[in-house]
Amino acid sequence: MNINHKFLFLLSKFAEVYPIGHSKYAPGTMASLTAIFIGYFLILNLDIKIYLIFLFMFIITSYFLCEAHIKLHKKKDPKEVVVDEISGQFIAILGCVQSEKFTYIFLFLSLFLSFILFRFFDITKIGPIKKFENLPNGIGIMADDIAAGLFAFITQAAILTSINQNIYIKTLWN
Questions:
Q1: Do the domain assignments include residue 13?
Q2: Would you say residue 19 lies in a domain?
């Protein structure tokens, strides 16, 4: 095994978010659950602008990880690659509650809603999401999950705003 192959192997394991990508039970769902906890911790502890920079860098890095996995394993959209689910869930979580009348029930419900909406859009691939999946290589792996994350975020923002709850993304303009 040469150095290039070892490096691709290591990048491939990052793309799998090893061992999550090899879970026997719904690896994409397990990755999304993991992303909920990590993403919410990051949102709580980072300024929203820093979180968005982190998110952008994470998506770019994830693309290269997907490309490395494809190069090593020669598969179009391998099920074990779950870094794309984490990227999409990191986008969807932007729609979680931020309120002066903060209660844990609203927090839990907004996190749960973020998770359910992202998984719904990621699994069903309704609307243009399916077209993004057909893009080549790492872009195709990443684009459908980014789109699903955006759909989930917009849907959650509409739902929470309709019940008079502020969402995190609004803090960009404060």
A1: no
A2: no
